Structure prediction request, 90 residues.
Amino acid sequence: MHPEDIYAGIGQRALVTAVTVALPLLGATLLVGILISIFQAVTSIQEMTLTFIPKILVVAAVLYLFGPWMGQVLVAFSAELLGNLPAFIG
Prediction:
């Protein structure tokens, strides 16, 4: 296996891991943002700061719920990367 293939595989795995870890946060904030936008459109309340507090609360809740899983995914990726480090170098 060529070094370029190894490095491309590492990069691909890193991107997949980053997207996997970020997806719960991004999905939850997107959903809350859409719901608040619908609420603002229905009630004609155009307060720009209305979206920030609910999004912050949702991010905190998602981190509380999914934080351990996110940590496990990141630790597993790091352990795999560091465990295979001699193969990458030599």
Summary: The mean pLDDT is 91. The chain has one domain: 27-89. The helical segments are 3-43, 52-83, 85-89.
